[in-house]
Amino acid sequence: MEDYIEGALAAGHIRPSTSPAAAGFFFVGKKDGGLQPCIDYRGLNAITVRYPYPLPLVPVALEQLRGVRVFTKLDLQSAYNLVCIRKGDEWKTTFHMTHGHYEYCVMPFGLTNAPAVFQALINGVFQDLLGKGVIAYIDDILVYSASMEYHVHQVREVLTRLQRHHLYVKLEKCKFHRSAVTFLGYVISRQGVEMDVVKVRIL
Predict the structure, then answer these.
(1) Which of 145, 106, 143, 139 minimizes the C-alpha distance to 123?
(2) What average pLDDT does the segment 106-128 reach?
(3) H or E stretch at 39
(4) Which pLDDT score is estimated for 200?
(5) Does domain 2-202 have CATH number 3.30.70.270?
């Protein structure tokens, strides 16, 4: 926990706070064995005006994959931290720990509008490519093509745009130039789209 605070302070993601309000802070386990900081923003979310930006309907988005032969899956790294909190609103994100209060300067996980805000951002990055070789669902991106030659060009364009907007991928979670990938709970291949068997077993 102290390592996270020191790193976030050094990166400018948080700063000490004197806010009279504060939420609880804890970690939850991630699938890769790491830890995800989590803050109990239920009180703040209950009085937050919702940002009505829609998230993509996954089954509808996947309908466009007929005839596709090559796939690349990208997972963005610390994506929310690239969105700044509006100046003057930082105090609302305060969380407390045994040795002090801190507030976020960037958008943390747990805010009710965070997914919609980031979806709006990523849609702006890929606006002319969405439905034409790219599906973007928050910080998960799928690039798809009918041929390997064109796919290489598409992936290069996607990565160039991400870099231009200071968005970076978790290389260890990306899959490049595959004939099949898992994406948002589905297995996608040249044969079509089906539910991930592992997810179905869990249910």
Answers:
(1) 139
(2) 95
(3) strand 35-39
(4) 52
(5) yes
